[in-house]
Automatic annotation (TrEMBL):
Organism per entry: Maribellus comscasis
Descriptive protein name: Uncharacterized protein
Entry keyword set: Membrane, Transmembrane, Transmembrane helix
Pfam families, per database record: DUF5687
Listed transmembrane segments: 68-90, 111-129, 141-162, 171-189, 209-225, 279-295, 307-330, 351-373, 379-401, 422-443, 449-470
InterPro entries linked to this entry: DUF5687
Length: 491
């Protein structure tokens, strides 16, 4: 039956219409897989020299062990964001005499064939042959190497379980973010050295290889936990029943904003009620902490103003970027219905512009906390905020004219490539790198202050002329209305 499961899964894949869709996204993913494999391989061959230079008082194995927690934690977060959950069209098998345990085991076993389970080998094996074989005796080497291999699968099953639970419950998602942030803060502010103590577990295995048994036990526990999770949901009524409780949101007060208030209320409801736009909005709020990374050395050295301009562009405009990336495809599922209602295209564009403008202002006010690190944040972020509102908003509208991919609002938001077309992949260039290129040219010719004045002035001109610009884009969207509807129905 396992052979049949693999056969059915293969036929499901080859017959799926999705196989022939999103070829650009698949090409990018293949390129990234090859790129990161080569990077990991290069790091593996050069890791020995780096450890010797940075940890001269430790053996290379001990230095390597002290860094494992950083890699494991980073990989766990990336797995949760990127790694797909094991899926299989098991519903037809629930009405025939096939054990549910066998289906669950097949799904979990098949999930092991994932790129992230092979990527660490490109880093680990070169380091093993260049350094570990010279420091460890053969039995100890096998125990140490086995513990690292098994740690990969611990991370694998832990990521799957966390992702299943976070997809099912928003509260579990927020809880995971809280725990992850707490662990990072405890380690970063040296309340407790989690990194070093986690590395001591592998040092203990080097001294006494019998402790490698901890990892098979952890894998069995996580495998059982995932297996039970699946078995508790292998019922027809469990699948068909919509257990998600709908919440009522009252945004009627937005109708007082103006003639486009009705559409603005619809936009906000769409974000609040659906998983994918809601996740994008929440993650946009979290990106306000991006400044802690790029401004962290402000008390030691002066931060380059180009970095501050980039940080301001990113932090104040992150919601516009994530929201505008799929505009107007957010409404693709009901776009024909929307076009048939008494809602003018001008109202759609006005509401989107107003939403992006307000969020830019809110994120700018939140970013003013970084004035504690540098007072320049006040005027640099203000200039790029004006540019985001007055220029980037209309760049987003221009790119949205080529929107052809519909969006599934109920899917996860993080690293979800459904609905990704060439427009979505290329949007970062004019939105982020475009203004940075303008800033670089202006700062080189007229200086930094002059560059901020020009960027802010361009944004202010766009804000003043936004009624005329919206009228222009209204005509362009109406010209492409039927083509967009036809494309959304096909995708």
């Amino acid at each position: 039956m396992k052979r049949n499961f693999f056969y059915f899964a293969w036929r499901e894949l080859t017959r799926s219409a999705y196989l022939r869709k999103n070829m650009a996204a698949k090409g990018v993913l293949i390129f990234l897989a090859l790129y990161f494999s080569l990077v990991a391989l290069a790091m593996g061959f050069n890791l020995s020299e780096h450890l010797s230079a940075n940890f001269p008082d430790q053996s290379q194995i001990s230095a390597f062990n002290s860094l494992i927690f950083i890699y494991v934690g980073f990989e766990l977060v990336i797995r949760i964001m990127v790694q797909n959950l094991p899926t299989f069209g098991f519903q037809p098998f629930l009405i025939i005499p096939v054990k549910r345990k066998r289906i669950a085991r097949y799904m979990l076993n098949k999930s092991l064939l994932h790129f992230f389970n092979f990527l660490p080998l490109f880093l680990l094996l070169p380091f093993t042959f260049r350094a570990a074989v010279h420091e460890l005796e053969t039995p100890v080497l096998f125990a140490w190497l086995g513990s690292l291999f098994l740690m990969i699968f611990v991370n694998h099953f832990l990521a799957i379980y966390i992702k299943w639970r976070t997809n099912e419950s928003d509260w579990f998602f927020y809880g995971f973010l809280t725990v992850a942030a707490s662990i990072f803060a405890i380690d970063y502010f040296e309340v407790f050295d989690i990194t070093a103590n986690f590395g001591k577990l592998f040092d203990l295995i080097v001294r006494n290889p019998i402790y490698v048994v901890v990892f098979p036990l952890a894998i069995i526990a996580l495998y059982t936990l995932n297996n039970r999770y699946l078995l508790n949901r292998f019922y027809i009524d469990e699948i068909s029943q919509k257990k998600k409780e709908t919440k009522a949101y009252d945004f009627s007060w937005l109708n007082q904003v103006g003639e486009y208030g009705k559409m603005l209320s619809l936009e906000v409801k769409m974000i609040a009620r659906n998983k994918r736009p809601r996740t994008s909005a929440i993650m946009s709020i979290l990106f306000i902490f991006y400044g802690l990374i790029i401004y962290q050395d402000a008390d030691v050295r002066e931060i380059p103003e180009a970095i501050m301009a980039f940080g301001g562009m990113f932090m104040t405009g992150i919601f516009s970027m994530t929201y505008g990336q799929f505009f107007p495809a957010w409404h693709s599922r009901y776009y024909p219905f929307l076009m048939a209602q008494n809602v003018k295209m001008k109202q759609v564009l006005q509401s989107a512009f107003f939403l992006m403008a307000v969020t830019n202002i809110i994120f700018y006010l939140l970013s003013l906390g970084y004035m504690y690190l540098s007072p320049k944040v006040l005027y640099i972020h203000f200039a790029v905020m004006l540019y985001n509102i007055g220029v980037n908003s209309f760049v987003i509208f221009a790119l949205g004219l080529n929107s052809r991919k519909s969006i599934n609002l109920d899917e996860r938001g993080m690293f979800n490539y459904q609905g990704m077309g060439a427009t979505q992949w290329l949007i970062a260039f004019p939105i982020i790198f475009g203004p940075m290129a303008v800033y670089g040219l202006l700062s080189w010719t007229i200086g930094n202050i002059g560059a901020y004045i020009v960027l802010g002035s361009l944004g202010l001109i766009g804000i003043i002329l936004h009624p005329r610009l919206i009228d222009y884009f209204t005509k362009e969207y109406l010209k492409r209305k039927h083509r967009m509807i036809a494309a959304y129905k096909k995708s």
